[in-house]
Design brief:
12% of the residues lie in helices and 31% in strands. The protein is mostly beta strands and 254 residues long. It has a 6-stranded antiparallel β-barrel. A 6-stranded antiparallel β-barrel has the order 2-3-4-7-6-5.
Length: 254
């Protein structure tokens, strides 16, 4: 019942905002191995007795902490969620790391500005054991203007038939360039938003990819937040800009 109500809310929100994560998965991406991107993890939601299914992407930044976006948490009940790490397969039956605490940004408001301050920090109950399949990524601290080569990753939506991690090459753009492309479809805030595009309308991110990484030179520069709702659109996609939240992240990493 709760999931159904939340889905109705998202549909209404989508119609109001005009820029949402509506594609069911990364489109046109390439298969990726977790050993290439061992910092990638799946945020899973409890669906039935001890059955966790992929909900959003997440990124390992230390043995105990991960980042994702605030929009992925429709509930503060952390026992409804878990982390699957070290796998390239979306819903592979692997060990689920239990979550101790989730800190969503204090200024995040899903009703007023759902793509502003769209960031959340996950603390695990027990630290991860690092390996070639599970590892951390460094956070970017530089405010980049744009025109960087980057890559983004995602497992896709809960119900689609894509079972493996996908990657897409992207190029970032400045916020003024992004605003000129996006137009009235969404507000591109100077603080906290980073835009990027693949250069191919067939290569897009989707709602199951929210919270996944945008990476430049082996550093995390963004988290997947939103994309234009027009299928086949050449408009850029929106990411939470990591360099805008370094202090916030450090504050909440106890």
């Amino acid at each position: 019942m709760f999931v159904a109500i939340w889905c109705v809310f998202i549909v209404i929100l989508n119609s109001l905002l005009g820029a949402v994560l509506i594609s069911p998965r990364i489109n046109g991406g390439q298969d990726a191995e977790i050993t290439q991107f061992p910092f990638m993890a799946s945020l899973r939601e409890l669906r039935g007795y001890n059955q966790y299914k992929h909900l959003c992407g997440s990124v390992i930044i230390s043995q105990r902490y991960l980042l994702t976006v605030a929009q992925c948490f429709s509930s503060e009940q952390v026992n409804w969620f878990g982390i699957a790490a070290g796998t390239s397969k979306k819903n592979e039956d692997v060990f689920i790391h239990r979550i101790r605490r989730v800190a969503t940004h204090e200024k995040y408001d899903a009703f007023v500005a759902p793509f502003m301050h769209d960031i959340a920090l996950i603390e695990l109950e027990q630290p991860l054991t690092l390996s070639e399949r599970i590892n951390v990524i460094s956070l970017n601290t530089t405010f980049y203007e744009g025109h960087l080569d980057a890559v983004t990753l995602g497992f896709g939506g809960v119900y689609d038939n894509i079972a493996k991690l996908q990657s897409i090459k992207m190029k970032t753009m400045t916020n003024p360039e992004c605003r000129s492309k996006v137009g009235k479809d969404n507000q591109v805030y100077d603080f906290g938003i980073l835009c990027a595009y693949s250069g191919d309308v067939k290569r897009r991110i989707g709602h199951g990819d929210a919270g996944g990484p945008l990476v430049h030179q082996n550093k995390l520069i963004g988290l997947i937040s939103w994309n234009p709702k027009v299928v086949g659109s050449d408009k850029p996609e929106g990411f939470t800009r990591i360099s805008s939240y370094n202090e916030w992240i450090a504050k909440h990493m106890k």
